[in-house]
What we know:
The complex is a heterodimer of chains A (110) and B (114). Chain A has 110 residues and is mainly beta. Chain A has no helices and nine strands. Chain A has strands at 9-13, 18-23, 33-38, 45-50, 53-56, 61-64, 70-75, 84-90, 104-109. Chain B is globular, with a radius of gyration of 13 Å. The A-B interface holds A 31-32, 34, 36, 41-46, 49, 87, 91-92, 96-98, 100-103 and B 4, 35, 40-45, 58-59, 90, 92, 98-100, 102-108.
Amino acid sequence: LAKTTQPISMDSYEGQEVNITCSHNNIATNDYITWYQQFPSQGPRFIIQGYKTKVTNEVASLFIPADRKSSTLSLPRVSLSDTAVYYCLVDAGNNRKLIWGLGTSLAVNP
Amino acid sequence: NAGVTQTPKFRVLKTGQSMTLLCAQDMNHEYMYWYRQDPGMGLRLIHYSVGEGTTAKGEVPDGYNVSRLKKQNFLLGLESAAPSQTSVYFCASSHQGAWQETQYFGPGTRLLVL
């Protein structure tokens, strides 16, 4: 099964760019990489998804190198409201399960 | 358009009691899921459904049963609650197709089993 590894926690300040890197060494050829955001007492919310190179939307950018063994979620100019847990997931392919790790707890300080 | 809703929001049970958690979605999604989230464990898939009338086991199905009699509803049952089932339960749905489809989550149900 494709497993992900990401930092347990990160600290940042308002206005900074935050990059969260996720390792997925045994990602399968047809797996996508998906990132979710979870605020306290809420369900996770989809942020961005990609397969290779770079994907950008109104919220974040996702950078995926050629070997696809890692990916980086980039949050530009974070604000206090970006304080949340961020999960990196890869599709587990034929096993039909998404593997949810512990996520990265991001704290944005004033 | 309410998205995914869950009832109840919070419940306290005594060991051995039973209860049903209700999940409803108004997005006409084919896939629905039940997860539990525990401190230090992340989200774990309990059961899922790929369409009306079908259900399948996830990662941690023991002690739970599910039913999908209507496309918009996915019920999670605990026949005899145990303290180990104290958790936050999330329901999610996705349109159809591959597992990388975006999942839309409900607000969660906090369950405490004494």
